[in-house]
Amino acid sequence: MLVLAPFGATSRDTRAALVAVASARRARDAPPPSTRDAPFASSRPRASGARGALNTFKHSIWARKGVFKAIENINNVLGPLIVGKDPCHQSEIDNTLISCDGTDDKSKLGANAILAVSLAVALAASKLKQIPLYEHFAQIYKDISGNVSKKTIPMPMFNILNGGEHADNNVDIQEFMIIPSKAKNFSQVMQWSSEIYQSLKSILISKKYSSAVGDEGGFAPSLNSNEEALQLIIEAIKKSNLKPGIDVNLALDCASSEFYNGNDYVLDGENKIFSSREFANYLEDLVSRYPIISIEDGMDENDIEGWRILSELIGDRCQLVGDDLFVTNKTILEGGIEKGIANSILIKFNQVGTLSETIETIMCANKNNYKTIISHRSGETEDTTISDLAVGLGSGQIKTGAPCRSDRVAKYNRLLWIEEESIDILLHE
């Protein structure tokens, strides 16, 4: 039986797993500062002196976006807890990590640090069993739920036009996505999405719009309205010899919390102010005129009445996804289900902190016929774990950005590899 060794003497595979998901290297393994000039290249502060000062922010290292504290918690607190434990006992190890933190929101040790260890354990177990990570995820799901997941290649939502907090433009809605609903396999999914993406680029250039990209690889032009973004995407679909609403559908992530002031929804880019009901009507109008089949965070997470209105208006014909609303939290999701709001949940496992808790939230959604979408974050690495997670748990959907930038494309490449090596795992319908 393989047991996890002390972190100072872990196997290369286990250590690599921890590095990948924590987005950092241990200081011991980093080259000397003199050979590394790029930010985040080393997990230790730079040497003092003029050169170090040039690469250090005035008031804090890496503008308080470094991972030193997370690494410290992993190496000194969380790591020693799992020494000698069998990595195949995921729930047991996760419960140990949760108990060590002792807070409801992982505020003591940090959800990112806890998740890094949780996922490193899962990867170590898959290496031990000599099975793909998605197969191991499927086994964990069965162990926790008692049910067998139907492994499928997830249908992606490609974020090809960015606004809101993900772009430096005047578009209020954060993400405009395409869903190649009629593609026969994942290879065709990638072909269609890439062609539409490039068609959109050429259209933007022809109209003298910017073709620079936002945080998730989607184009980020300033436009006359949110609706113009939809019109441009429809044009790009047609230019790619595909049919909007038949071959390819649309999805939105409003991220409405970013423009909700506590009373109204303020679209600065269009100089419009909506009440909750008016904004719900605005979204309903878009759904009636464009092939939009999914809307994420259509209302602010605190606007429960707004969510009720939106759910009643279009919940029977549109996937209404809670991200800020549910934050991958089983208890919060249960409350939303009781209120009858939304009908789907976005799954970001670093919001909850462990693999076991993530699976429990997905189980709750499945039991109540809420759809699940495995999601990346706006700040990403080339780690591909969420691709295996989506396949192994049979979530059916994944959201991981545009077919652009290595941090996004890596996830899609992983799904292409899974499709190629596993002929029995088909694209989710």
User: Within the CATH hierarchy, at the fold level, what is the topology of the largest domain?
Assistant: TIM Barrel
What string gives the helices and strands in order?
HHHHHHEEHHEEEHEHEHEHHEHEH
Please identify which CATH superfamily of the largest domain we are dealing with. Answer: Enolase-like C-terminal domain
- How much strand content do the residues show? 5-15%
CATH architecture of the largest domain: Alpha-Beta Barrel
Class from secondary-structure proportions: alpha/beta
CATH class of the largest domain: Alpha Beta
Biggest pleated sheet: 8 strands, mixed, barrel
DSSP summary, beta strand count: 10
Global mean pLDDT: 87
Radius of gyration: 22 Å
If helices are DSSP runs of H or I spanning 4 or more residues, what is the number of helices? 15
Q: How many domains make up the 3D coordinates?
A: 2
Helix content: 40-55%
Structural notes for this entry:
The chain has about 425 residues and is an alpha/beta fold. It has 2 domains: about 5-130, Enolase-like, domain 1 (2-Layer Sandwich), CATH 3.30.390; about 155-420, Enolase-like C-terminal domain (TIM Barrel, Alpha-Beta Barrel). The chain has helices at about 10-20, 50-55, 70-80, 90-100, 110-130, 135-145, 185-205, 225-240, 275-290, 305-315, 330-340, 350, 355-365, 385-395, 405-420, and strands spanning about 155-160, 175-180, 250-255, 265, 270-275, 290-295, 320, 345, 370-375, 395-400. The strands form 2 sheets. It has an 8-stranded mixed β-barrel, surrounded by 5 helices. The chain has a two-stranded antiparallel sheet with strand order 4-5.
